[in-house]
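Example record

Each entry pairs one chain with its bound ligand, (2S)-2,3-dihydroxy-3-methylbutanoic acid.
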Amino acid sequence: MTKLKFAMLGTGFWSRYQLAGWNEAGGVECVALYNRTRSRAEALATEFGVPAVYDDVKTLLDTEKLDFIDICTNVETHAELTRLAAGRGLPVVCQKPMATTLAEAEAMLATCQQHNVPLFINENWRWQYPIRQFKRILEEGRIGKPFRARIDMISGFPVFQNQPFLAELEQFIITDLGSHTLDVARCLFGEANSLFCQTHKAHTNIKGEDVATMMLNMGEDITVLVQMAYAENYLEREAFPQTFITVEGTKGSLELGLDYWIRETTADGTLAKRYPPPRYEWANPFYDVVHSSIVPCQADIAQALRGEGTAETTGEDNLKTVRLVFGSYQSAATGLPLTAKQLA
Ligand code: 89V
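Structure tokens for the complex follow.
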């Protein structure tokens, strides 16, 4: 099989895991790296044996023969880089969050459609092994018809140390984490029929909100509460970046809890089994469940890029998550819930 050649744009904190993920997924080859600070691209190129380095995107695109590009830069550059690549007929894979506003995300998709190139979003959270197992068990239906669920990602982890730019975002936790948790909600329960959100700021030294709570009605009338926080809550045990999920159904309940234990409780009793994520040598142990989810996410995108099927996390699909992200800010600002019509 000939490998698909790609360039990665951006060589910050996330890019080395993204590159390792592509290597693990297989069938693709990174042939060039771009960073506006050339030395940062050079360092990563040496580490991963990437042959070419650029500090100018247009020169890279004019020089390299590529099958797609992977955008791993800060969010405010995603739209422009997408426009440049799509204009040259190149499929685009882009990091979440897709864009800084809903209008910008819509424009990115429209540009790709206009140039007839696919757009994929590296939305990995729904690919976490324990979450995939949770989805499988939920769909087996033993807990009956779900009517209420909770998705929690609450942490005191010093996230700003590894990703300092997060402290500078005017809209922080819903764009960074809500992009993931709201996407998981869609993946498990379907599309939103309504949304209400409230936010808070616990850290005084950051720009955006770091606490958010959303109440949604989703799919076939399921009430879903999404709770997120980065705050020094002095949790008895820090669990970053684990997501906890509880679903109540007409015949039982299902819980994804600490250390990847899934507990299914029905009239027959409780069945508990642990579903830890795979461990990769290249993964940062503080992020293992997230880093390992990069691999199936990229394998899914790679097979779609080879024309072997559709991917889950297309730009078109992710736009529905983006609508929930910015809908949450709108609800928090106005104090009003949004209807399905307002979210469409
Ligand atoms: O995946 C991410 O969006 C990261 C983190 C795990 C820290 O939220 O920014």
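Residues 4-122 form a domain with the Rossmann fold fold (CATH 3.40.50.720).
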